Amino acid sequence: MATLREGARMASALGRRQLPLRTVPSCASRFASTQADKPSSPSDALADLDAASSFTTPTPDAKEIEAFNSAEKNQSRNKQLPGNRYQYHPPKYYRGPLHPVQMPASSDPTARDFVPGPFSFPRLKHTYDNTIAPDLMTLTYTHVPPGTVAPESNKGVLREWDESSPYHKNRPRRGPRGGGSSRLGILERDIAWHNIPEIEAVTINSYAPLSGQNKEYLHVARAVVQAISGGFPEVTKVKHGVVQWGVRKGDKAGAKVTLKGGAAYDFVDKLVTLVLPKIKDWEGINASTGDDAGNLAFGLRPAWMAFFPEIEFNYDMYPARLMPGCDIFIKTTGTSDRQARLLMQALGFPFYGKATH
C-alpha cells in the first residue's frame, strides 16, 4: 500500500509540473558552421598559434625535473664568506670630517652607539616643543636691522695674526696669550630659532663616603639611583686621597648615572610634578649656581628621597639609616647661566637669591 501511495504521489507531481518548451530559432541552422559539430583534435586547435609559443612546448620529462631541482639546491647553499671578517664594521674612532671612512649616524642600526627607540614621546618634551620653545624665542627676540656690524667685545683679549704666512688670511683671531681661556670664557650667543636652549642631559650622582668601609652603603646608593632614574648606574671612585678625612685614592665613593633624550625629560618632569612640590622646606635652586656654560646643579637631602614614587611605594626596602642624598646636574644647550635659568624657570623650577651672572 505504501508503494502504491508513493507512485500515485509521484504521478500527480509530474502531472502538475509544466515543462518549458525549448524552441530553436529557424536561423540557427543557417549560421551554424558545418565544422562545428565535428570533433577537433588538439593539434588543430593549436594550429593558429605561433610556433615559438609556450603552448606548443612539450612537458618536461622526469630527468629534466630532477636536474632542475638539483641545480636549485646547489644555488640555495650558503656559499658566502664568513661575516665576522668581511661584513661591514663601523669605525671605532672618529678621525675628523675629512677622513674617507665616516662613522654612521647614531640612528643607524649599524652604528656602535645605536640605541633603539624612542618608544614614547615625553609629556614635558611635547610641552617644550609646542609652548616653551616658541615663548622663549619670542621673549628674547632682538631685532637687528640688516647691515648692522656687530661690535667686537673681545678685541683687547684676542690677538691678531701677523700675516707672515698665507695661511693667516681669513682666519679668526688667536686665543689669549699663555692659554688663559678662563679670561675669555664661553661667549653667550643670542637666542634664535636654531639655538633655543633645551635639556641635553641630566646626571644623578649619589655620594656615599662610607662605601669604602661598608659595602651596604654602596648597595643602597646604587639601588636608589637605579630606582629613581631607570638606568644602570656606574660606581664612582675617589680620585684624590685625604689622610685627615680617612679617604684613600681608589675607594668606592657612590654611584652616578647620566640620562639623555626622552629619559632626561621624563626625570625632569617627575621632579617638577611629583617630587619638589612635596618638599615644604625647599626654597628652590640658588640663582648663583652654574658653571658659566649653561649647566645648573642642585641637591636633595636623604630625607627628601622618599618623595620619589619609585621609593615611596616600597620604602621599607631601603634602610633609612643608609639612605643617601643625591646631586642633580642639568646640562642645557644654553651658552650662559642666564639662558639656563630662563629655561628652567619655564619648565617649573623656582629660584631664590640674587644672580651673580
TrEMBL record:
<keyword id="KW-0689">Ribosomal protein</keyword>
<dbReference type="InterPro" id="IPR031310">
    <property type="entry name" value="Ribosomal_uL5_N"/>
</dbReference>
<feature type="region of interest" description="Disordered">
    <location>
        <begin position="71"/>
        <end position="91"/>
    </location>
</feature>
<dbReference type="InterPro" id="IPR022803">
    <property type="entry name" value="Ribosomal_uL5_dom_sf"/>
</dbReference>
<feature type="domain" description="Large ribosomal subunit protein uL5 C-terminal">
    <location>
        <begin position="253"/>
        <end position="351"/>
    </location>
</feature>
<feature type="region of interest" description="Disordered">
    <location>
        <begin position="1"/>
        <end position="59"/>
    </location>
</feature>
<comment type="similarity">
    <text>Belongs to the universal ribosomal protein uL5 family.</text>
</comment>
<feature type="domain" description="Large ribosomal subunit protein uL5 N-terminal">
    <location>
        <begin position="194"/>
        <end position="248"/>
    </location>
</feature>
<dbReference type="GO" id="GO:0003735">
    <property type="term" value="F:structural constituent of ribosome"/>
</dbReference>
<dbReference type="InterPro" id="IPR002132">
    <property type="entry name" value="Ribosomal_uL5"/>
</dbReference>
<feature type="compositionally biased region" description="Low complexity">
    <location>
        <begin position="39"/>
        <end position="54"/>
    </location>
</feature>
<dbReference type="Pfam" id="PF00281">
    <property type="entry name" value="Ribosomal_L5"/>
</dbReference>
<dbReference type="GO" id="GO:1990904">
    <property type="term" value="C:ribonucleoprotein complex"/>
</dbReference>
<feature type="region of interest" description="Disordered">
    <location>
        <begin position="148"/>
        <end position="183"/>
    </location>
</feature>
<dbReference type="GO" id="GO:0006412">
    <property type="term" value="P:translation"/>
</dbReference>
<feature type="compositionally biased region" description="Basic and acidic residues">
    <location>
        <begin position="157"/>
        <end position="166"/>
    </location>
</feature>
<dbReference type="InterPro" id="IPR031309">
    <property type="entry name" value="Ribosomal_uL5_C"/>
</dbReference>
<keyword id="KW-0687">Ribonucleoprotein</keyword>
<dbReference type="Pfam" id="PF00673">
    <property type="entry name" value="Ribosomal_L5_C"/>
</dbReference>
<dbReference type="GO" id="GO:0005840">
    <property type="term" value="C:ribosome"/>
</dbReference>
<protein>
    <recommendedName>
        <fullName>Ribosomal protein L5</fullName>
    </recommendedName>
</protein>
<feature type="compositionally biased region" description="Polar residues">
    <location>
        <begin position="71"/>
        <end position="81"/>
    </location>
</feature>
